[in-house]
Amino acid sequence: MMGAEERMIRLEVLTKEVCWSIFSKIAFFNREQNSQLVRIGRELVHKCQGLPLAAKTLGSLMRLKRHVHQWNYILNSALWNIEDVQVNVFVPFMLSYHDLPPLEKVCLLYCCVFPKDHVIDRDELITMWLSQDFFSPSKNLEQQDLSCIEQWFELQAKDCFENLAARSFFQDFKKDNDGRIEKCKMHDLIHDFLQYLTAKEYFMVDTYSNNQGREGTVSTTVNQANEKARHATLLLESDSQIPESVNMKRHLRTLFITSSDGSTFLRLNLENFKLVRTLHLSGARIVEIPKEIKELIHLRYLCISDNYHLKELPEQVCDLYNLMTLRIYRCPEFQTWPKQMSKLKNLRYLYVKGCDKIKAPAGLAIWDIKIFH
């Protein structure tokens, strides 16, 4: 096919010994190299096809396995027999994915909403998970007050993030002074793998790549997406608006919109997205938030960061009773809070940074809210 050579992704391939070095340092961290496990480990490394990320992911998985029968179970998995070339590359990730608890699987799959090479803020990801109601209280917490339950959810989410990071699903960590991860990225192969698993409930529209004559990887186009798709990512170039075909997806729970070009402004039409819980508009080139936002009665997370011409939030935002998280970073012209912010009884996380013209909003129950300025 003409042009296929230019679009082909060439993966870096390592020697078996280099792959073994990557695998063994992780798999045998803080323990001796048992001869039986070494033999099985070398067979696993052979199946990595020289891919460093595969060796790293398998090493992270096997570090949790202490017994020979557990290692043999992974080595003899039927997944290694998949003949589809594209899917076969994903087998090491699939083995690690299937080993996750159900909650961590759900949280990992949700990460496909971030564009490739996106710098993921840990707190941002955690509050997005919380907005989707992925977490449920244990039986002994059901009788506790709401604040205790919310703290439990947050602890669950933090543990989930740390476990996924330990499994090598994230990389390029930026840590704080205490060694805790603040930001990270996902490898493109992991991103492709997650899109492969979520093809029926997630889709991406990339007008920038289309205009550049490039094809996507395994991301599902909007026309192929299931009618009841739950999550959507829109990467919009200048002069492009939300496609009408996206407006027809009325079951969306997440709408993640960003732009590759800040020269024109996006006009939002939110009337068709009344089930959205997570609305991410960072860098979406918006000048104003439409008053129709009050129709998003299920909205729990709103990010309007990096919109340099945005000056205010409409009063209708105060009708979003379920709103838990509001992020406003790097909006230098933002200067006016709605007057009835006190109506946001469920607001728990308020992130404000790089908005020099604004002060803390009046009327909020500050002791109930975590404000990050």
Automatic annotation (TrEMBL):
Domain Disease resistance R13L4/SHOC-2-like LRR: 251-363
Pfam families tied to this protein: LRR_14, WHD_DRP
Residue span, Disease resistance protein winged helix domain: 113-193
InterPro entries reported in the protein's UniProt record: Apaf_helical, Disease_R_plants, LRR_dom_sf, LRR_R13L4/SHOC2-like, P-loop_NTPase, WH-like_DNA-bd_sf, WHD_DRP
GO molecular function annotation: ADP binding
Keyword set includes Secreted: no
Keyword check for Transmembrane: no
Single Gene Ontology BP annotation: defense response to other organism
Gene3D superfamilies with a match to the protein in the record: Helical domain of apoptotic protease-activating factors, Ribonuclease Inhibitor, Winged helix-like DNA-binding domain superfamily/Winged helix DNA-binding domain
Domain of life: Eukaryota
UniProt keywords, alphabetically: Plant defense, Repeat
Coiled-coil intervals, chain numbering: none
Protein name: Uncharacterized protein
